[in-house]
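Task 17 of the worksheet. Students: predict the tertiary structure of the chain below and write it out as structure tokens. Keep your answer in the requested format; marks are given for formatting as well as content.
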Amino acid sequence: MTEYIVSNIISTSLNSPQRIINKVYDKIGFNIIQDEELRHLVVSRICSPMSKKATVDYLRRHFKEEVSLQKIYRYLDKLYNTQQELVQEISVKHTKGLFGGNLGILFYDVTTLYFETTNKDELRESGFSKDGKNANSQVVLGLLVSRGGYPLSYSLFNGSQYEGYTMLPIVDDFVQRFNLGNDFVVIADSGLMSAKNVKLLRDGGYKYIIGARIKKESGRIMEKIIATERRCGVFNDIKYPDGDRLIVGYSDERAKKNAFDREQGVERLRKRFSKGTLTKADINKRGYNKFLSVSSGITVSIDEEKIKEDAIWDGLKGYKTNTDLSPEKVYEAYQNLWNVERSFRITKGTLDVRPMFHFTPRRIEAHVCICFVALKVYKELERLLKLSGCPYSVDETLKIAETIVTIEIARPENKDTITKTLCLTEEERAIAYLIDTDDWLEL
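Model answer:
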């Protein structure tokens, strides 16, 4: 049998990663878009994130698709405003299905996507960069995700946009588009929450849990915060005059990190002090410069008293909310904000959304749309792997799939051909269920 197969092989292919992703893509419902170019670009983005020029070669090798670079660019020009709402609707519908029709919690955060250029336009602008690329032009990406980190909606903003102004437009638009009413809680980091934003959330009838800036509270509230028992799992539930609550908790791990970070920062200040390089220009509130003081209008020194006062806050974290959830539930919900941060890490790292090399707004929009769909597919594959008890991550699974060979075999007796997929190792057998085929061949 083996000799017959080997002697009649016409061609071989290593397309199992694509077959896995195609299956998940269809399961989510993106196949209703009936856009093969979008499918190919999403598969390419997950399997081998590269420039669009390199994607042309990838499509030729793995899909036998003869696609020119100019055709891809023309497609991006067409995609930018045709499928964005639909891909978000599909993602929301699928995600709601995972949670019994009720999203319950919405997490929001922003990041920046930079370009390898300083050129600017109506979308690309310089601004505060989360990648440390302040000289480069960038765009601001706002992302709304569900429990588990499944992407729901996104928006792009001018690169100079203050991140605090991005959340309300996205949440308002999302709620109106999907008729959510107010049966959910918005969760966001303190960096996005000015007093104005909190008021807008409250006036809009939204429930929220947001990171609190506990060191900037009023004197009375501050006294109550400091009185919090320093024990993990014990919370201080403080009432604000406006009816909101401030939930304050303590963590040994956070306390150690706070102390370590401060020691590192102060040590750097001490080295500069000993070298005489600290000046009045360093007297500001940035970072650990807050521990500096000036005497007689001339001498800059390190204020040891300020360092001691800062240590009082070690391990404390506050969460402002207008919900009636228990302190434990508020804490638990906020901890899941890391799902948005992880979604950004996947998008920026695994899917290589940045740096971007597109320089027209419509192609930038299209590129981010493709990455949004790729992120949704990636997260769904991750969920399916966990659900089945598979020991491999998404990246490990796709790496194993690259070794699975599909062969086309000639049948001289009836001038026909058959296709068989070879399953040769235990690793390959562990992920075989992800590939739709009735033609497995074990040798």
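Marker's comment: DSSP finds 16 helices and 14 strands in the chain. The chain has a mean pLDDT of 82.
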